[in-house]
Amino acid sequence: MFEPGAYTFVNRFGTFIVKRAVFAVVGFGADLVVAATSNGLIKMRKKMDPSSFETPNKPPILLNAFP
């Protein structure tokens, strides 16, 4: 990000914003994969042995998204 050369402040700030957006998209995608995997495992476990399964309370997504 801070290589020597003819980079202006706008170029460097633009790079910062683009990298931040890329990391946000990748993190969001990874979160979707983890949530889908977790929900799939819970559904599979429930189908295999419904008698010993307690449905956990799902936490509110929006309240957990912001610390």
Beta-strand percentage range: under 5%
What count of helical segments does DSSP give? Answer: 2
**What class, by secondary structure content?**
mainly alpha
Helix content: 55-70%
Succession of helices and strands: HH
For the termini, the CA-CA separation is 29 Å
* Apparent shape: rod-shaped
Number of strands: 0
Largest sheet: none
* Average pLDDT number: 84
Low-confidence stretches: none
Using only C-alpha atoms, the radius of gyration works out to 21 Å
Compile the SSE list and pairings.
Elements: H1 9-48, H2 61-65
What does this structure look like?
With 67 residues, this protein is an all-alpha fold. The chain has helices spanning 9-48, 61-65.
Summarize the structure.
With 67 residues, the chain is mainly α.
Features:
single chain; 67 residues; mainly alpha
